[in-house]
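Quick note —
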Amino acid sequence: MEYDGPDLGYLTVTLDCLWDLYDQTGDFKFLDAAGRAFAFMEWFITSPPHAAGQHNARNTDYLVPYGLTRFLAEGEDWKKRAERVLRILYNNTDSPEHFFSAVDDRYVSHYIGHSVLRAISQLQGESPRTETNSTQTVPLVREIQSNYFSGSGHWRAGQSLLVSGKKGGIFSAGSHDDAGIADFGWIVQRAKKEYVSHWWSPDWQVEARDNRISVRGKLYPHVEHLSTPAKHAILRLTSFFLGRHLIAWLKSILIFKAGGEHLSFHREIFLESAELIHVEDEIGGLLPGDKLCRAPRASKRHVASADSFHPEDFVLAQGCHISETRDQTDNVHRIKTSYQIPA
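Predicted structure written out below.
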């Protein structure tokens, strides 16, 4: 668990470690955990948009390859599944748009770089298995057929729609000709404070059925903190005296928050067909001076070094037709949006 939910990027790092633990101990439970981790990642990766990104609790865009390549040597079934996942993730690593071109160089030195080098060795047939554990194989975990994970709130519908219910119902969808959409909810601006729906939390109430998903909860309060030399000096001085006791307070401000009591949010997403998505949003508790705007890709939650540049930072919908209607009654604002994706 990362930031109250699953994160595929950090799960691939954990997968590397699970293989190392097994190689050192020969304990079968690490193989079992590795197989289940692979099946969970496979669920996301083998369906467009072929990754998770903002659907991760920590917004991690990159996935490291070594633990995935180890499944190539685990029998024909695992090999086929691993080959499919690896091709999707790494067949264009020379592209400037690949996530390896946008990761922090410190992370390349820390664990991404050596995972890549170890993956290359694995692909060249240099397996680290020893004679003592070479007879054990990863138990075959069947591909996950469910369209909904109640624990994480992830819901997949049709061929390409992926919704993160525990992140305020953000979603993405796409076709095979690079047309696609991403919807990251709403921001209510009130004086110097913002209230956002794009926030991972176990407090969201999610209900998925057939071709529809419903998300209910409270918008999360957020204040933009401008970094200044004076604030930095105060933070350094405070950390000198309080040490690790300061971390819990900072996390409560930047990472872990409770939903506000002022603004309610309800989102319904309905998949009419593979190409047509309807969204009904209802925001309650608005004041006359509030400003309502669609949220950008970047989450307001503090996620140090986890996110990187993505084309969605410039445009959220490409090659799609969008229609929108708005209605406001008293302090409740209702927005109906339809996304038409080319077949």
